[in-house]
Design a protein that fits this description.
heterodimer, A: alpha/beta, 6-stranded mixed β-barrel, 16% strand, B: 499 residues, two-stranded antiparallel ribbon, 23 helices
Chain lengths: 1208, 499
């Protein structure tokens, strides 16, 4: 064809230079996005003319083994839009402060030379204080100088420490792994100061409590490449394309290697597209489905077929063969506590006998204590904490008996509960009678037998069992037909699923996996849903196997070098005690949300007993004084004053100070802050927010925060529940508004938190600083680097906190001229001997036992704070590292030599204090180098050393794992060149030698290192009294709380009926939480707003059309947005993607008298599960971000109403 | 080019990679040279596939083909009036927000907000359309259900597609197809558009373009756009400045679904006119026939004769595109019936199995317990299948729909590929798990026309292939191109200076 010609005249193609000129750049830097997405993608940042122009993905990840697809490229639509922020009109260029506050401060300051005095006067002037609080969030920002704002901040720090105590200075920043040093800057400052870090993983409801419950582990999962090894993948509550965007290809690719995929989701979600089967399960009922699956697996593969791999796995790696006492209650037998070794004559004097548990040895029929119990972990003699099938007393091989069915003294009828249909069943269970040291005869059975009975697998035993082949008995838990009632999924689907699952596991030795996420974990009953799924993994031998296991990916972002990082971040190199606060209970109490809650037993279905009849706030108070949960502010007195007072009253040693305080506590003279949270002396006062959106994006009960923390306007219409008030926690008639004196936000963009803060400090973005990043989705550590220097007047988080430390030290010269003592309370900690302190629940405050710190109550620690030296300590690595070594998760190693190498090195920066050299932390890059030199993950010498110590503890051979890595040493400049795959280390549970994909718990299964649980095995059974009280000792199903009782709509529906929808808030496609949601690219590719998705049917009923403006509201507040009407949404639910900002295109609300509407957290409120408060008991022991109630938001119900008038 | 739709995750990273580099400037705000659509859906610009509205592409005439809406014969009369152009609202009115209001608002009695404003007029606006407005079945009634490809379906089939038990969607990423028979080239009255000889990239000369916008109408894929600021049309340039430097195009580089493949294809240009004019039933087969075997001695000889570099021939031999399209017959052009002979081929997607609802009849009603009522649905959903994987018959989407997109209406074209995709999976299942018998695996392969070796190759390119195997970029030999104008050594010392 004549018109298609190859233009041979080169001159006519000269214009092509036009586009070539655009594709030019001066330099490419390596960085990433420090956002809570778990992506950890390495990016090329292109700089031209001194300006960041665009970003593309790096492709240079080291290869894993050659059977796995490569990681390249990693990065998503959100990440690639980041460069827009740098020079956008949302950017914070200069330090900002609200005019009202600045004027008030300046007015006083002009008359006073002393900033602290000025701040004091302002705080004491109640009308002035209230005036600037009321102005929060309502515009009026003014540019100010760094030095002036640092002065105000430092003055508030010093004043607060003097007046109320340093534990009233609070910080919130989430997910350190995404930019480890940016997090650590703030936390290091706070911990040197004596302030408080709030947790985030539990607060975000991303912590899967089932993981500590079953494995004693916060979360440990496979890297995404390992999905490819899986031969059957079930996805529930995780929308891979949306949230695991750079990893989804492994899932799509695995299918071409013969993997079957099944997706559970109420809506036809993006990932449903990849599934072989999509199960549109009813929202929040996944647990029921899995209970049905387990019923079939137990029936067919454990009882009838008895697959050897499954049974052997259960014997060695789970608590299945452990004996449980049956307790008699109202003449009914019920499953009780694990049988303790010291309950029987033979072992009555065994060390830690409350913490060693019994099996029956099948070959001898005798009771035996297998190795590896938590008691062995803390025995004076080391070497028996392992999973060898040996009797530790004689080192005889044992063969644990799984079931007593052929060895029973008697079949007892035992009561089991089904909370779904609210039934009780009496089911026959084989027991043996054991004589205890008290001479009592108690019936015991195995966890395995209880499990069979719980799931309704009769095995020919009498009682309320479904017939053994009758999967269609819908009245009996937990058959496939029974689950139909809740899940809406046909029994046939369950049966087929269970068979294929088990057969795949049998054929592959456990290569079945579950990918799970917020869609399940954000439900109130999430721990039960998880346990229901994990049961199928444990019963089919899938945990600790490449291609198998539970892969939970929600906000966990594994901070790989946690051993060395943890010390720098929490200033343990200088101070022995940190104040690390469990955020959900803290916000529940401090935002006064507990006052709106009433008794949780109203909506949390559970048996009736002393625990379940308590108000959650009272239970929290109990958990604080018993040392289960941390709480700061600690006491109704300033901890500095307390120590001073003790010294003045004759105490001369730290122990005497502690004793003085203990006596005050016991006498009631000294009270806990949590016992009277509405009293002025117990308010949190100064709040630092950085790297997160604490006021809006993550704030469950956001409007309560506006009211009670900030004292500004709110859209709450809920009323307090005086008829269900607290008993021990003091109830005030009126809850105060405006508890916080000062809110400081470090930010690169004007987000909702910045909008409501008093001071906004311009923070460097992710292309403007040096930092470290790791994730559990891959096994590399890689950097953020400054492609351009921090723009305009911004500074890095590390430098900002360094400046705050400097200014605070400066003002301290006058106000804290000499060092002071501080008393720090700390809860009983997981992975320390504290975890074997409370075999029974006894409350010293009720006279049930003696008050002994560290045993029956929290610990007390006395530390010294020299506020004048805060800055010096901030910038240098203290020598406690040298003397005490490092470690994590119960592992420890000495590092004196490496510390000395750094402090004497010519290559590393150093600081000189009092004529002594210290490794320097002054610059973030130096701190990054120190982290990598001192971590077992990046320094091979230390890896070997840590394995050697683990050998001592376990009596196993482990050092071979580190062979070949001894010379590994990684520096920051190495990372700039290429991401580095880190070493296997005993602080993590996966083995990753020779390019093997990381999969959790392979270390435990292959190397026989115990899990950090009571039995050292994976737990099917949870025997803490709180679990028995709440009916959660065995895996079970509890339906979502009924909305009528959940308290979202009491006021809203007061005047009549309306259509109520369950509002789901999954992670969205166009943002990572609230970041990127305001980015022009994302807004353009979506609907220009964060909309509310409705089904065709519901929208029609409500008279709503696509793109109409609607209000999503309930008692807590209102979110006004536009509707998206779609066939892919099921009836009865609406979807608002998670963590919308309240900045972009927010109209005035019609249902709230024309006040500006809020964000999606405007319609949420905190609801806690009280049994997750348990402590001092094996895996039920506190660790920061590891344990404690989470703050779910999925069970929320709303009214959706069309707006007739839209005003801005 | 090949896009493997079964792997596409619909993330739009490709779109932004492109936008950041090429169209983030005045007059180009609304352009998305690369965009991703949800199917079923009406796409961007809205309803672009409806040539009754836009008159894009070619139509068959007695002799060969002629442009449907414009062009040398029909176009001259319309040269100052082009009635078939999409309007801005068919794309969308680009918008931004009053972001600065958040920081600069004076103190008030309520929270400030950032209202949307038009990027064209700067005035407040009500956003009603975007470049991805019907994403993930957004507004499915007004968009997905209006997809023109549904026209081949019966009313009952159409309705079923939007019921829960059959509903599905997939993503369709689109860039310029760099066609062999580009309608845009033919339509340009200024002769500003040309297809580069060395790599087949179709370009609009920014110096010669005279704003006729005939290319906008003529391209049936609506991949030529008018820049209202410069007064020139622009389109995807397949990142030739990147290709010349050995980089993959930005959209391909950034594809985290790893769905994209790029490679050299040798073809017989003399057949273009004849093939473009062949009957609709034969179009796809005839287009594939034009693509030549790079290992064939005759082809190599001829290629050399035409001045094609050895390095390009070697690249053609390693081309992943040749494998998908020609060797394995697993990729098809989008809407071949537009007769532009597009050079972007798609592997059609697999979709989850259909389900049944056991259900609304009275007998089943009883199955649902009082306690289940809170969900307010009366059916039980059954998705069980007889085998580990279901048969093609149970696939959620009517094959007819996919055939309308990729098969020029021929369903066999789709089923043959789906059979291959499934055969590879079944074969690998046997190999890695063993719960499917060897006999069944072999039989399935045979039925799909594959051997074990072929299945392993397909498996490898689908899953394991690293960057360099997915994108085989021939050396550009820029030194030779430069030499045609001036001494390359002189160029070396002066390139970049522009005074």
């Amino acid at each position: 064809m004549s018109w298609i010609q190859d233009l041979i005249s080169p001159n006519t193609r000269k214009w092509e230079q036009f586009y070539r000129n655009r594709f030019q750049h001066d330099r490419v830097y390596r960085s990433t996005h420090g956002v809570n997405c778990t992506g950890g993608c390495s990016w090329q940042i292109h700089v031209k003319d001194g300006i960041v122009v665009w970003e593309t993905q790096q492709l240079d990840y080291p290869l894993l083994d050659d059977k796995l697809p490569p990681y390249e490229p990693r990065g998503c639509q959100r990440g690639i839009s980041f460069s827009w922020y740098l020079y956008s009109p949302l950017r914070i260029k200069y330090p900002l402060i609200r005019g009202k506050l600045l004027d008030a401060y300046r007015e006083i300051r002009e008359k006073s030379n002393d900033p602290v005095e000025a701040w004091k006067k302002l705080q004491e002037d109640a009308p002035k204080r209230s005036e600037y609080q009321k102005a929060r969030g309502k515009g009026g920002f003014r540019r100010a100088s760094w030095e002036e704002l640092l002065e105000i901040i430092a003055a508030s720090n010093i004043y607060t420490a003097q007046k109320h105590g340093p534990d009233r200075v609070i910080g919130f920043s989430p997910i350190p792994a995404m930019s480890m040093l940016s997090y650590a800057g703030g936390s290091r400052f706070l911990q040197l100061f004596g302030g408080v870090n709030l947790s985030f993983y539990d607060w975000y409801c991303d912590l899967p409590n089932a993981s500590p419950e079953i494995w004693g582990e916060q979360t440990d999962v496979a890297e995404s490449a390992d999905w490819y090894n899986s031969k059957f993948i079930a996805v529930m509550g995780a929308n891979l394309n949306m949230t695991r965007t750079p990893d989804t290809h492994f899932f799509a690719e695995a299918r071409y290697n013969g993997t079957k995929t099944v997706v559970f989701s109420p809506d036809f979600s993006q990932v449903a597209k990849y599934s072989d089967q999509w199960v549109p399960i009813h929202a929040g009922s996944d647990g029921a489905f899995w209970m049905g699956v387990t019923h079939v697996i137990l029936q067919e593969f454990h009882h009838k077929k008895q697959v050897p791999y499954f049974l052997n796995y259960a014997k060695q790696y789970t608590d299945s063969p452990y004996l449980v006492e049956l307790s008699e209650d109202d003449s009914r037998y019920k499953p009780g506590k694990l049988l303790r070794a010291n309950r029987i004559e033979q072992y009555k004097d065994i060390e830690n006998g409350d913490w060693k548990f019994l099996n029956i040895n099948e070959s001898t029929g005798k009771l035996v204590v297998p190795n590896g119990n938590i008691g062995h972990r803390w025995d004076s003699e080391e070497g028996n904490w392992n999973l060898k099938l040996k009797d530790n007393t004689g080192n005889e091989p044992i063969d644990p008996l799984l079931s007593l069915i052929d060895h029973a003294d008697e079949i007892l009828q035992v009561e089991f509960r089904d909370f779904g249909l609210d039934n009780r069943y009496e089911r026959g269970v084989p027991v043996q009678w054991i004589k205890t040291v008290d001479g009592e005869k108690v019936p015991v059975t195995t966890v395995y037998d209880l499990t069979m009975a719980q799931y309704g697998v009769s095995r020919g035993l009498d009682g309320h069992y479904p017939d053994s082949d009758d999967y269609h008995n819908k009245d009996m838990a937990f058959t496939p037909a029974w689950q139909e009632i809740f899940s809406g999924t046909d029994a046939n689907t369950v049966i087929q699923f269970a068979r294929e699952w088990a057969k795949t596991a049998e054929a592959t030795n456990g290569k079945c996996s579950i990918i799970i996420g917020a869609g399940v974990n954000h439900w109130y009953q999430n721990n039960l849903m998880y346990r229901a799924g994990i049961m199928t993994l444990m019963l089919c031998g899938c945990v600790g196997v490449n291609g198998g296991g539970l892969n939970h990916y929600v906000g966990q972002e594994k901070l790989a070098p946690i051993d060395s990082w943890g010390t720098i971040a929490f200033a343990k190199d200088w101070v022995d005690a940190a104040r690390l606060q469990q955020a959900p209970i803290w916000h529940y109490i401090n935002t006064s949300q507990y006052r709106y809650d009433g008794f949780s037993s109203e909506y949390n279905i559970a048996p009736e007993n002393e625990y379940t009849n308590m108000h959650n706030a009272d239970l929290i108070l109990k958990s604080i004084r018993m040392g289960w949960m941390p709480y700061y502010p600690q006491f109704n007195k300033n901890p500095l004053d307390l120590c001073k007072e003790a010294l003045e009253n004759g105490a001369s040693t730290d122990d005497e100070i502690k004793d003085y305080i203990l006596q005050k506590l016991k006498s009631g003279e000294l009270g806990y802050s949590a016992a009277d949270p509405e009293a002025e002396e117990n308010f949190p006062r100064v709040w630092y927010i950085w790297r997160g959106n604490a006021i809006s994006g993550s704030m469950k009960g956001h409007e309560y925060l506006l009211k009670h923390y900030l004292g500004t306007h709110s859209n709450v219409i809920a009323t307090e529940r005086e008829e269900q008030k607290t008993e021990e926690v003091k109830w005030h008639e009126v809850a105060p508004e405006g508890k916080m004196d000062l809110v400081v936000d470090l930010n690169f963009r004007m987000d909702s938190s910045a909008l409501y803060s008093d001071i906004v400090l311009p923070a460097a973005s992710w292309y403007e600083k040096d930092d470290l990043n790791s994730t559990d989705l891959h096994s590399f550590i890689h950097p953020l680097t400054a492609a351009v220097a921090p723009v305009w007047e911004s500074k890095t988080d590390w430098d900002i906190f360094k400046q705050i430390a400097r200014k605070t030290s400066e003002l301290a010269k006058q106000h804290f001229s000499s060092p002071v003592k501080d008393v720090v309370t700390a809860p009983l900690a997981h992975d320390t001997p504290d975890e074997i302190t409370q075999p029974e629940v006894k409350d010293w405050a009720h006279g049930e036992c003696e008050a002994i710190p560290g045993k029956t109550m929290h610990k007390l620690k006395i530390v010294e704070r020299d506020y004048t030296r805060l800055y010096e300590k901030f910038i240098s690595l203290g020598d406690k590292v040298r003397s005490k070594g490092l470690g994590a998760h119960g592992n420890a190693y000495a590092c004196e030599d490496v510390y000395d190498e750094i402090s004497q090195s010519a290559h590393f920066a150093r600081e000189k204090l009092d004529n002594k050299m210290y490794p320097s932390l002054k610059e973030a890059e130096s701190a990054a180098n120190v982290i990598m030199q001192l971590s077992t993950l990046t320094n091979g010498k230390l890896t070997s050393r840590a394995y050697k110590n683990a050998e001592k503890k376990t009596g196993l051979k482990l050092t071979d794992i580190s062979e070949g890595n001894e010379h590994t040493r990684v520096s920051f400049s190495n990372l700039k060149a290429q991401p580095h795959r880190y070493n296997s280390s005993p602080i993590w549970s996966g083995l990753m030698n020779a390019g093997r994909a990381y999969a959790a718990f392979t270390y435990n299964v292959e190397r026989l290192v115990p899990w950090r649980t009571l039995t050292g095995r994976q737990h099917l059974y949870l025997d803490h009294p709180m679990y028995i009280a709440y009916g959660e000792n065995l895996p079970t199903y509890k339906p979502s709380p009924k909305w009528e009782l959940y308290g979202d709509l009491r006021e809203t529906l007061k005047n009549g009926e309306a259509k109520v929808l369950n509002c789901l808030t999954p992670h969205g496609k166009w943002h990572i939480h609230s970041t990127y949601m305001d980015n022009i690219r994302m807004l353009t590719l979506s609907r220009g707003i964060e909309p509310c998705w409705l089904s065709e049917a519901d929208a029609e009923e409500l008279g709503i059309k696509d793109n109409d403006w609607v209000e999503v509201h309930n008692d807590h507040g209102v979110f006004s947005t536009r509707a998206v009407v779609s066939n892919r949404i099921p009836k009865g639910v609406c979807i608002v993607y998670h963590a919308s900002e309240r900045t972009i295109s927010v109209p005035k609300s019609q249902v709230r008298n024309g006040k500006r509407a809020g964000g999606n957290n405007s319609f949420t409120r905190v609801h806690l599960k009280p049994n997750l408060l348990a402590g001092g008991y094996g895996q039920f022991s506190y660790h920061f971000n590891y344990w404690g109630p989470t703050a779910p938001n999925r069970d929320t119900h709303v009214i959706v109403k069309k707006m007739t008038k839209v005003e801005f | 080019m090949v896009f493997h739709l079964d792997k596409c995750i619909g993330c739009h990273t490709c779109s932004i990679a492109c936008k950041n580099i090429w169209t983030d400037r005045k007059g180009a705000e609304y352009m998305w040279w690369n965009n991703v659509e949800t199917k079923p859906g009406t796409g961007y610009p809205n309803k672009w596939e409806n040539q009754e509205i836009y008159k894009g592409g070619w139509e068959k005439n007695k002799k060969s083909v002629s442009l449907k809406g414009t062009g040398k014969s029909k176009g001259l009369g319309n040269i100052f009036h082009n009635p078939y152009l999409p309007k801005i609202d068919d794309y969308y009115e680009p918008f931004t927000y009053r972001y600065a209001n958040l920081t600069n608002s004076p103190e008030g009695d309520d929270q400030p907000t950032a209202r949307p404003v038009s990027q064209i007029t700067g005035k407040n606006m009500d956003i009603k359309m975007g470049p991805n407005w019907d994403d993930d079945l957004s507004g499915s009634h007004d968009f997905a259900q209006q997809d023109i490809n549904l026209e081949s379906l019966s009313q009952a089939e159409k309705e079923a597609m939007f019921q829960l038990e059959q509903m599905a969607f997939f993503y369709l990423p689109r860039i310029c197809n760099h066609c062999l028979n580009p309608a845009c080239v033919a339509a340009c009255p200024s002769g500003a558009i040309y297809k580069r000889g060395e790599d087949g990239i179709v370009l609009i000369n920014q110096e010669k373009c005279r704003a006729w916008r005939m290319c906008v109408t003529a391209c049936p894929y609506k991949k030529a756009y008018f820049n209202w600021n410069t007064g020139k049309s622009e389109k995807c340039i397949l990142c030739y400045p990147r290709l010349e430097a050995g980089h993959a195009p930005a959209c391909m580089h950034s594809c985290v679904g790893r769905i994209r493949y790029l490679g050299v294809i040798l073809y017989d240009a003399d057949k273009i006119e004849e093939v473009a004019g062949s009957s609709e039933a034969n179009l796809i087969d005839r287009q594939k026939e034009m693509l030549l075997d790079p290992f064939d001695e005759e082809v190599i000889k001829q290629a050399r004769k035409n001045g094609i570099a050895d390095s390009t021939i070697e690249a053609a031999q390693k081309s992943p595109v040749y494998k998908w399209v020609k060797e394995w017959n697993m990729a098809l052009p989008l809407h071949a019936e537009y007769r532009t002979l597009p050079m972007l081929f798609y592997v059609p997607p697999l979709l989850p199995v259909m389900a049944s609802l056991s259900n609304q009849d009275n007998q089943q009603q009883e199955k649902i317990h009082e306690k289940g009522k809170q969900w307010n649905v009366e059916w039980i959903y059954d998705t069980s299948t007889d085998d580990l994987w279901s048969s093609i018959r149970q696939v959620r989407f009517p094959v007819k729909y996919l055939a309308s997109l990729f098969g020029a209406g021929d369903e066999r074209k789709i089923t043959q590929i789906i059979e291959k995709l499934m055969a590879v999976r079944i074969y690998r299942r046997w190999k890695t798990v063993g719960d499917i018998t060897e006999t069944k695996a072999d039989k399935t392969l045979e039925k799909a026309g594959l051997t074990r070796e072929l299945a392993d190759n397909i498996y490898r390119l689908t899953t394991l292939a690293p960057f360099e195997e997915r994108f085989v970029i021939p050396p550009a030999h820029r030194e030779e191109a430069v030499e045609m104008m001036k001494d390359t050594g002189v160029h070396k010392g002066s390139v970049g200076f522009k005074i």
